């Protein structure tokens, strides 16, 4: 919402899996990843390759409108991503993150990296938290749009699931 941050504290712009779309010519698609604990389970969307060799992917979030109360990115954890893989042998990993701001048709890259982030173990949640100090630009205004891009690789029969991604205000 369009709520003054001073009244309600930190604002968080959440991105759900269904708001991500693939870049052109991808050989990676959506599948279902089931996390089970005893008799309980939850199904979440995951990325899966169309063939047995390692395939690169890029996914982009739908544009998120910056609300009026979002005046500054959070100092620690300005971008946060939680992800999981069903394999611990590095056949599904994240290889880069970009946060792009659009003011009309003008694009400005606020954050970009090409860091390879391997899984810590099968079915283990990995958290990525990126501080505002890593941004190349932190200027943001209400009404502009943010797009989160994630690149990585995934191999057939393996799943990489991004089940939480968000951009936080101070």
Task: Write a structural description.
A hairpin with a 2-residue loop joins strand 3 (28-37) and strand 4. The chain is built from one helix and twelve strands; from the N terminus they run αββββββββββββ. Strands 2, 5, 6, 8, 9 and 11 form a six-stranded antiparallel sheet that branches. A four-stranded antiparallel sheet has the order 1-12-7-10, with no helix packed on it. By secondary structure, it is mostly beta strands. It is globular and about 45 Å long. The two termini are 15 Å apart. It has one helix at 5-8, and strands at residues 12-15, 20-22, 28-37, 40-49, 55-61, 64-65, 79-85, 92-103, 106-113, 126-130, 145-154, 160-168.
Q: Rg, please? A: 17 Å
Q: In terms of structural class, how would the helical and strand content be classed? A: mainly beta
Quickly count the helices.
Answer: 1
Content of β-strand: over 45%
Q: What would you call the shape? A: globular
| Main sheet specs | 6 strands, antiparallel
Give the helices and strands as they follow along the chain. HEEEEEEEEEEEE
Chain-averaged pLDDT = 86
* Annotation, overall tally of beta strands: 12
Enumerate the spans where pLDDT stays under 50 for 5 or more consecutive residues. none
Q: Helix coverage percent of residues?
A: under 10%
């Amino acid at each position: 919402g369009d709520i003054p941050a001073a009244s309600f504290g930190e604002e968080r712009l959440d991105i759900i899996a269904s708001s991500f779309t693939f870049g052109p010519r991808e050989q990676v698609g959506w599948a279902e990843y089931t996390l089970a604990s005893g008799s309980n389970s939850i199904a979440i969307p995951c990325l899966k390759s169309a063939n047995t060799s390692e395939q690169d992917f890029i996914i982009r979030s739908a544009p998120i409108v910056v609300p009026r109360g979002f005046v500054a990115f959070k100092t620690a954890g300005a971008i946060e991503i939680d992800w999981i893989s069903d394999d611990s042998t590095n056949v599904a990993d994240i290889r880069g993150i970009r946060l792009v701001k659009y003011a009309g048709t003008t694009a400005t890259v606020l954050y970009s990296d090409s860091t390879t982030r391997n899984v810590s173990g099968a079915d283990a949640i990995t958290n990525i938290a990126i501080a505002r100090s890593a941004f190349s630009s932190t200027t943001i205004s209400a009404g502009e749009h943010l797009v989160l891009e994630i690149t990585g690789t995934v191999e057939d029969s393996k799943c990489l699931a991004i089940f939480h991604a968000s951009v936080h205000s101070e």
